[in-house]
């Protein structure tokens, strides 16, 4: 059966494309560059992934984190896999600024509603991702954008 | 200069001991098994660690996660490295229950004050850690316990 991204994640994000192991999503709230990696696996816990797949996922998170650092003037990168609400394994890679709307609190439950990303900015992010993440394949159409 | 754990982390936790790369701390609030790994590095971002050290840290987090699963009836494991408040690199490994005091919200800013761990329970956790984490070395004295 084809891999499907959880409907709640789909509703909350733009699907930008995919890398070797993970789909890259971008949260619709443009207050922050908030990426979510969804690796193609049925396992729901990071610690249950075989070591090779753990490394692959963290390598992809690192590439996205380097992309964040290169294109935004970040104060911090937040990495987290929680899964209390959406069980499907997903890893947040979030760029934080000392003057962002919920600094220094974590984004979950604290980030006020913000403007959506413009279609142009989404395209630009896809193009920029291709320059730093060699295996990035953009989604044909930005889901729901 | 000797490596020092951030004073805020020291104040919030018991220092249980260390593994190859990380010190293992346990948050003083016993509502949840909330471990914090502090790797011996001056880098503050996970994504800036060399790949070998990233793998080492995630391996240690996985061992602690397996220990959690073995000794508590968990609903979920939360893994996160935020660092918005304490800059020193640290990785949360938190066991969550569907009936815990802040489920399904993340613990940060949401977990009500809870009872401290008993000295006996802390010793038991140290002993249990030794059985599942081969390189675990317990702290001579539980800091501040």
Keywords:
145 residues, 22% strand, 6-stranded antiparallel beta sheet, alpha+beta, 28% helix, homodimer, 3 helices
Please tell me about this protein's structure:
The structure is a homodimer of 145-residue chains. With 145 residues, chain A is α+β, with helices and mostly antiparallel strands. The first copy, chain A, contains three helices and six strands. Chain A starts with 6 loop residues before the first helix and ends in a 7-residue tail after the last strand. The model of chain A has no long low-confidence stretch (mean pLDDT 94). Strand 4 of chain A pairs antiparallel with strand 4 (76-81) of chain B, so a sheet runs across the interface.
Summed up, what is this model?
The structure is a homodimer of 145-residue chains. Chain A has 145 residues and is an alpha+beta fold.
Task: Determine the structural class of chain A based on helices, strands and strand pairing.
Answer: alpha+beta
Question: How much helix, percentage-wise, in residues of chain A?
Answer: 25-40%
Question: What is the percentage of strand-forming residues of chain A?
Answer: 15-25%
So what's the oligomer here? homodimer
Question: Largest chain-chain contact?
Answer: A-B, 31 and 31 residues
Q: How many helices of chain A does DSSP assign? A: 3
Q: How big is the Rg of chain A?
A: 14 Å
Most strands sheet of chain A: 6 strands, antiparallel
Order of helices and strands of chain A: HEEEHEEHE
């Amino acid at each position: 059966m084809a891999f499907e991204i959880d409907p709640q994640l789909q509703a909350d994000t733009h699907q930008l494309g995919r890398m070797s192991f993970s789909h890259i999503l971008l949260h619709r709230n443009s207050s922050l560059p908030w990426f979510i990696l969804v690796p193609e696996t049925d396992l729901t816990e990071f610690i249950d992934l075989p070591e090779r797949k753990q490394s692959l996922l963290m390598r992809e998170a690192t590439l996205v984190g380097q992309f964040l650092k290169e294109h935004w003037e970040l104060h911090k990168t937040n990495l987290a896999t929680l899964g209390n609400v959406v069980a499907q394994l997903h890893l947040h890679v979030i760029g934080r600024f000392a003057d962002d709307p919920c600094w220094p609190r974590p984004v979950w439950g604290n980030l006020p509603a913000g403007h959506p990303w413009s279609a142009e900015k989404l395209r630009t992010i896809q193009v920029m991702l291709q320059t730093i993440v060699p295996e990035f394949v953009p989604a044909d159409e930005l889901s729901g954008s």
